[in-house]
Structure formats: C-alpha cells, structure tokens
Design brief:
Number of strands: 8
Strand order of the largest sheet: 3-8-4-5-6-7
Number of domains: 1
Structural class: alpha+beta
Helix content: 40-55%
CATH topology: endopeptidase fold (from Nostoc punctiforme)
Shape: globular
CATH superfamily: endopeptidase domain like (from Nostoc punctiforme)
Largest sheet: 6 strands, antiparallel
Strand content: 15-25%
Number of helices: 7
CATH class: Alpha Beta
Length: about 220
C-alpha cells in the first residue's frame, strides 16, 4: 500500500511537470511571436491554430478526471475540486489568456460576451440538440464556449466531430471530454448560448498579454 501511494505521488508529479512544461512552451511561443515586427498587421491564424491545438490536445485532457465541486477553485489538474465556470476560466488562463478569476462567477452568456469580439453569438431556446450541433458544425473547426441553463463548458469542433468538455455535475462529477450528442447537461438544457473563441481580437489580447475586462458584469447591472 505504501509503495502504491509512493508511485501514485510520483506519477502525479510527473504529469504535473509535463503540464507545466506545456504552459511554459506556450509562453515561450507567445514571447517569440511578440518580438516579431508589425503586430497590427499580423496574421493571427498560425497563433490561433497553435493555441487551439494546445488546448485540445494538452491542457483540456490533462484536467479530465479532476473532481467537480460547486464551489471548487482548483488551480491545477487532478487537485481538489473545480466548478464549471472556474474550469473554463482556469484552462484559458493556462493557455496564456489574462482573464480575471472573478469572471468565472459571471453568467455564462456574460463570459462569452466578454471574450468574443467577432462572429455571431447564437442563442437556442428549446431547440433540438441536433440543430444546435449542426450550427456549430457550420461555423467550422475551433473552440466554442457554450452556456446552458445553469452550466458552462467548451465545445471542440475538429475532424468532423464535436466534443463537449466541461466540469460535469452529472455523475461521475468529474471533468470530462465526451461526445456532444450524448447524455449530458448539454442535451438536457432548455437554453443554450454559444460563441466561437479565439477570434483575432481575443488572440491579440493573448499575444500582447492584455487583461480581458468585464464589460458585461452581472453584479454591476
């Protein structure tokens, strides 16, 4: 039993080291791009692809299995508990976006409107899930933020499929990446609001290390 615990701790430390190395690589890449000339005329597409791939393949999967908790505020994968809004904000922070922690307490639609500058923010009320996912597919590959009746998470569109990644309050009450058309809060919600992340303005904030302001603040309204 003692050996098992020792190996478990060592494995967790190794996973955390790999995770922090990923975050360091993102920051090194950001600074390297920032030193190049002509920021205002820059093509953000290569940066968008890089950040999307790091989120899809490294950051979000590392959190899978982390326990959900309504008041959870974990800062690292596989530690403690994390709430759905905190999960969204924390993973974007780890990807290099300077987002205030308090934004996690905002209603999902406000989080979306604070982060998305370009493209439509689509709202669905009592719509079949198939129609919602058809709209996402029509917008193309990328990372989406979806707000539900009382939940928020990511939709990841790639290679002809859509995955729902969220701190799941349904059993097993853990962070999961699951097919978007399966049983989940996404299917059961009556209201869904969706915005596509990583537009040019969002990537400009990322590149320049600019803080996202809470232009839409439920607690000031």
């Amino acid at each position: 039993m003692v050996l098992f615990l020792v190996f478990s701790v060592l494995a967790w430390q190794s996973d955390l080291e790999r995770y922090t190395q990923t975050l360091n690589e993102i920051e090194v890449y950001r600074k390297a791009v920032l030193t190049e000339d002509n920021v205002n005329g820059r093509d953000f597409e290569p940066m968008r692809r890089q950040v999307f791939q790091q989120l899809k393949n490294q950051i979000l999967p590392a959190w899978c299995g982390t326990a959900w908790g309504f008041y959870g505020t974990s800062h690292w994968p596989q530690q403690g508990e994390i709430a759905c809004g905190v999960f969204v904000v924390r993973t974007l922070q780890h990807a290099g976006f300077v987002i205030p922690d308090r934004m996690a307490a905002q209603p999902a639609e406000n989080i979306i409107k604070n982060l998305v500058s370009a493209g439509p923010i689509q709202r669905f009320s009592r719509a079949p899930l198939d129609r919602v996912l058809e709209w996402v597919a029509a917008q193309g590959d990328g990372l989406y933020l979806v707000g539900l009746d009382c939940h928020v998470g990511f939709l990841i569109r790639f290679e002809g499929k859509t995955v729902f990644c969220h701190a799941n309050y349904y059993p097993p009450q853990k962070v999961v990446m699951e097919p978007a058309d399966g049983p989940s809060p996404l299917r059961d919600s009556q209201y869904r609001v969706i915005g596509k992340l990583l537009d040019d303005e969002m990537m400009r904030h990322w590149l320049e290390g600019r803080t996202f302001t809470q232009r839409y603040d439920y607690f000031r309204e």
